[in-house]
Design goal:
With 254 residues, the protein is mainly alpha-helical. The protein has eleven helices and no strands. It has one domain (7-248). 78% of the residues lie in helices and 0% in strands. It is globular, with a radius of gyration of 20 Å. It starts with 6 loop residues before the first helix and ends in a 14-residue tail after the last helix.
């Protein structure tokens, strides 16, 4: 019998930890948000949130895309040993792809929630989190029948996106956050760079059978090349479209 009881746990270990630096962004901006709030400077407060959201999308979107595209190479390289069969790889891939759909939402929450905390508003994020928890459990009931364990992962991912969407909506509704000009062009350029990277990874990784049969050192070497090549292509594409590192220099309150 395939050893599949631990597959959601494995996917959980991989998924939400892909971009720890981006998750830490919420901790980084919280002191500056608090400073702008105490100085009664709503314009800088909103601009700092805007900077955090742009930087989050810049790093989280390619991470989510790479996680979905490279699911089989990642799982095979990390876990394809001993009793971990090809069927286990396939089952874990389903959960990991489902988790990747919510990765951006998971990270955005870490940036949006400090927008409330810095204003000493703890109740709103808690209320949103409780609503999201209930919605996630309902989605579990809906998805687990047709999708099995992948349905649980999908519900968690969609719940994270719902959480982030509600927090963003409330920040805008309360006029705490007002998006800076140029968001449409910014998002489209990032999306194009992500699409180019994802296409390259998809065609370069080859057939899943190779990853299932190859030796561990060969899988690790090829995966390293794929990751390095994907990073290089992504940032090269951004550079050609006018992105420069200085545009994302850390903003801090004086």
């Amino acid at each position: 019998m395939p050893n599949v009881a631990h597959l959601p746990t494995i996917a959980t270990l991989i998924g939400p930890r892909i971009t720890p630096d981006t998750v830490a962004l919420g901790t980084v901006i919280l002191p500056s948000l608090s400073k702008h709030f105490s100085d009664d400077n709503p314009a800088e407060y909103s601009a700092l949130l805007d900077w955090g959201l742009r930087l989050t999308l810049l790093l989280a979107l390619p991470s989510a895309a790479a996680l979905a595209v490279l699911a089989v190479p990642l799982i095979s390289t990390l876990f394809r040993y001993g009793a971990f069969s090809a069927h286990d790889v396939a089952m874990t891939q389903q959960a990991l792809v489902a988790y990747s759909l919510g990765l951006v939402g998971l990270i955005l929450v870490k940036v949006l929630a400090p927008g409330f905390y810095a204003r000493q508003n703890i109740r709103t994020p808690v209320k949103v989190a409780i609503f999201t928890l209930v919605a996630t459990q309902l989605m579990n009931l809906v998805f687990i029948g047709p999708l099995g364990h992948a349905g649980l992962a999908l519900a968690i991912g969609l719940g994270a996106c719902l959480n982030a969407g509600l927090l963003l909506h409330l920040l805008k509704k309360q006029q705490v956050y007002q998006p800076q000009p140029g968001w449409t062009g910014y998002f489209l350029r990032v999306l194009l760079a992500v699409a180019l990277m994802a296409a390259m990874l998809y065609f370069a990784m080859g057939e899943p059978q190779w990853w299932l049969a190859a030796r561990s050192y060969a899988r690790l070497a090829r995966l390293s090349l794929l990751v390095g090549g994907g990073i290089a292509l992504y940032f090269a594409a951004l550079g050609l479209m006018g992105f420069r590192p200085r545009q994302f220099a850390r903003r801090a309150a004086e």
